[in-house]
């Protein structure tokens, strides 16, 4: 397929660009700094590089899935995780609502895990590329839950 590199580029731009745009408009502020946080909270500077790498991987996986499994449950789950992913920061930082953000991140966690399961047989590489993302989202879910409980 001639346009394969363009598909990859489009997905990476969509995900990385969308993530950076949402991140730039939902920056942790005084409210976030005033919250009680668990001891396992990473430093703020770690989030941007971690998410940038993950967004690039998410874009690559989206392109792989689009090119090979476009009308599959895996593709629908890929889009679902992106919606949950992009909704979390506005809920948590924008609305200052850790409870709503908790519901969203649980949807994200479930959709990422379901994507791995749905794509495992047809595209094991895509499934495996989502494993670090699943680990990070599981960690972020624990962090969101701890912040919710502490505040």
Automatic annotation (TrEMBL):
It is found in: Membrane. Gene3D superfamilies: TspO/MBR protein. InterPro entries: TspO/MBR-related_sf, TspO_MBR. Keywords: Membrane, Transmembrane, Transmembrane helix. It comes from the Bacteria. The chain crosses the membrane at residues 7-25, 45-63, 75-93, 99-120, 127-150. Pfam families: TspO_MBR. Its main location: membrane. It is a multi-pass membrane protein. Belongs to the TspO/BZRP family. This is Tryptophan-rich sensory protein. The gene is tspO.
């Amino acid at each position: 397929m001639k346009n394969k590199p363009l598909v990859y580029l489009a997905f990476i731009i969509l995900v990385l660009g969308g993530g950076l745009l949402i991140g730039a408009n939902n920056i942790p502020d005084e409210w976030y700094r005033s919250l009680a946080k668990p001891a396992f909270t990473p430093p703020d500077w770690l989030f941007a590089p971690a998410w940038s790498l993950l967004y690039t991987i998410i874009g690559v996986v989206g392109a792989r899935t689009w090119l090979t499994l476009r009308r599959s449950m895996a593709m629908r789950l890929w889009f679902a995780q992106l919606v949950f992913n992009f909704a979390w920061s506005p809920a948590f930082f924008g609305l200052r609502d850790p409870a709503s953000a908790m519901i969203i991140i649980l949807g994200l966690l479930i959709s990422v895990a379901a994507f791995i399961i749905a794509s495992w047989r047809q595209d094991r590489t895509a499934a495996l590329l989502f494993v670090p993302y699943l680990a990070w989202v599981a960690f972020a879910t624990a962090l969101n839950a701890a912040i919710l409980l502490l505040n």
